[in-house]
Amino acid sequence: MTSTSYQHAIDSGVYLKGVDSSHIGARLPVERSEIGDPSVFLIIGQSNGGNHGETKHAARRSVFNFNPFDGLCYRACDPLLGATGDGGSPWCMLGDALVADGFAQSILLCPLSVGGATIGEWAPGGTYHYRMIYGIERLREAGFHPSYVLWHQGEADALYGTSANDYANAFRALVQSFRDLDIRAPIYVATASYFAVPEGYGASQAIIRHAQQLLISPEDLILPGPDTDLIRDRFDGCHMGNTGLREHAQMWQTCLRGTRRRWDATVPVPRSPSDAAKSGSSRPIFDPAGQLGSAPTTRK
């Protein structure tokens, strides 16, 4: 049953009946003092970034879930509030792992992912773009700001045959909207295109993979996320099974370990994608050890 505190989100067109659930059930809000100074993860994409996994998990450490629909924080457990689906996700396991290895003292998850969403639906003018803006505004009202943006999306565009150019242009427009909102956080782009059912989409999946890999631009704080196409534990041909969810969490942990330092207001606002496209200078390259080098902008 929908919480009465969701009425503003419903009236704003953000909470979509028949698409969103985010049932609070027996969960209770936690006090702001309990959360401390968390690393805040804004998670955007489609079903494999939401609650569509086979098995549910609950965080055991200081991992919390910001619910954009009521502006409150809860202990993190699947299905996470804010994303579609009633199953499991990798995010509670990721949060536990990051707290355990000292990445952060506490983690605040703000998932907004929508099953079946395309890149165009998240870009400016798309169906879910305001959902992203609304979530960010609610975060700020609660006194939080994204530390990291995790992007996991691409299967829908592989299914619908989106071109590499259209995918890249829509993503760059999305990045520009983040920067216009003064979101200075690094954006991690997962390589995500794979599904086994229906069959016959290998060529279009390769196009989306290529587009995602070309988007990486560390000088603009667009960093490589995991290649989750390598995960083949898909209980229904697309969504991740129990083993797949654990692999998913482990892959994100490995990527994030390379950038432990907190991005804050002292970090210059990244260049706009249009400026980046015009630049002919060498761009730094990022590796999992967190070392920066330089490489020509020309890509093969």
Secondary structure elements and pairings:
Blueprint: H1 7-11, H2 32-35, E1 39-45, E2 63-67, E3 72-75, H3 91-100, E4 107-111, H4 119-122, H5 129-141, E5 148-152, H6 155-160, H7 164-180, E6 187-191, H8 202-214, E7 222-227, H9 242-257, H10 273-278, E8 283-286, E9 292-295
Mean pLDDT: 88
Rg, rounded, reads 18 Å
Order of helices and strands: HHEEEHEHHEHHEHEHHEE
Strand proportion, as a percent range, falls in 15-25%
Structural class: alpha/beta
Q: Would you state the CATH class? A: Alpha Beta
CATH architecture: 3-Layer(aba) Sandwich
What is the count of distinct domains?
A: 1
Reported for the largest beta sheet, the result is: 7 strands, mixed
Q: If you consult CATH, what is the topology?
A: Rossmann fold
Helix share, percent: 25-40%
Low-pLDDT segments, ≥5 res: 261-268, 276-300
Number of strands: 9
Please, how many helices?
10
CATH superfamily: SGNH hydrolase
Description:
The protein has a 7-stranded mixed β-sheet with strand order 3-2-4-1-5-6-7, with helices on both faces. Strands 8-9 form a two-stranded antiparallel sheet. The chain is globular and about 50 Å long. The protein has 300 residues and is α/β, with parallel strands linked by helices. The C terminus is likely disordered. It has a single domain, classed as Rossmann fold (3-Layer(aba) Sandwich). Strand 8 and strand 9 form a beta hairpin.
